[in-house]
Automatic annotation (TrEMBL):
CDD domains: PTH2_like. The keyword Isomerase does not apply. The lineage of its organism: Eukaryota, Metazoa, Chordata, Craniata, Vertebrata. It comes from Limosa lapponica baueri. It catalyses: an N-acyl-L-alpha-aminoacyl-tRNA + H2O = an N-acyl-L-amino acid + a tRNA + H(+). Coiled coil: none annotated. The keyword Ligase does not apply. One of its GO terms (molecular function) is peptidyl-tRNA hydrolase activity. Keywords: Hydrolase. Its EC number is 3.1.1.29. This is peptidyl-tRNA hydrolase.
Length: 135
């Protein structure tokens, strides 16, 4: 990112040196859809949510560091049992000022997935520990 002389990046240097190694992006997909939709359609929902979260928070130093990790990026895909659980998680994240994006499939207007921007695991794991890995 190129900034004019005298301008600071919007987040300065908030990421601690070496913090990239502990960054993870969490994606939470509705399990009911994962089992009833074609596999490709379900995977696409997670991709959409992850990209939307990374794009929305692209200037955050943790997101930049995560994206610079290339093949070392760590993404964890969890399962919310249904839309109600996904909506409740989104509300909890909002109340705790955790940056995330809910992906809503159109034209159906169905919330299918959410993704957090990349975070150090210890900052967000407490809000996600009741969700299991998607299988």
């Amino acid at each position: 990112m190129h900034l004019p002389a005298g301008c600071a990046a919007p987040y300065g240097s908030m990421a601690a040196p070496g913090a990239a190694a502990g960054l993870v992006q969490y994606v939470v997909l509705r399990g009911d859809l994962a089992r009833s939709w074609p596999l490709g359609a379900a995977v696409a929902q997670g991709c959409h949510a992850a990209l939307a979260a990374a794009h929305e928070h692209r200037q955050h130093p943790d997101t930049r560091a995560y994206l610079e990790m290339g093949g070392a990026m760590r993404t964890v895909v969890l399962e919310a049992p249904d839309e109600a659980a996904l909506t409740a998680l989104a509300e909890t994240l909002k109340q705790n000022s955790i940056d995330h994006q809910v992906w809503t499939e159109q034209p159906e207007n169905v919330a299918t997935c959410l993704a957090l921007r990349p975070y150090p695991k210890d900052q967000v794991h407490q809000h996600l520990k009741k969700f299991k890995l998607l299988k």
